[in-house]
Amino acid sequence: MGPNFDVVVVGAGIFGSCTAYHCQKLGLKTLLLEQFNLGHSNGSSHGKSRIIRYAHASPEYVPLVGDAYSQIEEFEKKRGEKLWNKLGLLWTATGNQVNEISGHLKNLNIEHSVIPGNEISNHYPQLKFDEKWTGLIDPMGGVIYANKWLNAFQEEFKNLGGVIHENEPVLSHTETETGGITVTTVADSYSTTKVIYTVGCWITKFFPNVNFDIKPTSLAVCYWNTKEKKNAHLVDEKHFPVFIVKDLENDEEFLGLPDVDYPGKLKFLTDDGDALTEDLGHPDKQTDRLIEMPRGFIKEHIPVIDGSKPFTVEKCKYTSSPDHHYVIGPISENYPNILVGGCGSGSGFKVAPGIGRALAEMAAGKERTTPPRCELKLVKALQLLLKDFIHRNGPLVKQEC
Asked: What family, per the record (predicted)?
């Protein structure tokens, strides 16, 4: 049996790394376990860039973003390292969505502006929209340097005395009659009082008897050249915003970022993907629509970009819940010592610091200090399914991957 810990966090992506850091900061002796090497590309937390923004369709999460901005500022001062860049966010949509988001931001006194679609090019001449679109500009939007941000939380966790084991998959956890938990890995076993699973799409493997109704997908992360090399600067951080597109008429969503990952290459992809394989791997071949959808949008709305084919395409695992809210908190009221944090794909990086703080406070039994307007939700369907399973099969004494 290995050493005892107050908390074992399983999964060292952005949710797990933020959670482990805050657990250790609260004085909890914490072990962070990762099945792959740190910074691996098998999940959802790799790469150089993610979007941060106040603009959000779910207003309850806006205060969490404010908490993230505070933590970024704290880390940048402490580490002397630039972790994000304030570029501004453009959110453009058909229908009434922009006005709804604007209403949320007004209620929270968040600075922003709303413009007709045909005026977007006055702000960003690389883009072209007509009057059926509406744009929202969030001046606090920007790009998170994702790999640096992830590494910062892991390093600060270790600086506080936290322990990280990489390349050590977890096999199972077992609850004891006294309320303790034994976590068994391929290398050792650890005693703890709390386990927090922040494992992305692998959550279904650790709780195989629970129908999470989560269908993880494989995104095609596309990078595109400009039509002319002399215009490559038009997609850099000085000239191009981060942007989100919601074409509600055609049920299409897109994400765009400037050339952080590859100089002179626009990062632009559809917020959709292919199903993962049974063993939660990427499919061997991506469907053509994951390229055709952004290609079609580029042709119509980003004339500076060569939409004939991507410069390169990378893969990212994407996990979201049925109601598209994050899954945060105890797995069940009957098992308060087993917590989960996940389903953050698409927007999780910008709220991960606040979610990590909230999970740590739950683990420590402390009153939450995250903003009171932020209601962290465990998917109701999950709770009902767990109660039904326990009623039919008895307590979840042991769960194995």
From this structure: Belongs to the MSOX/MTOX family.
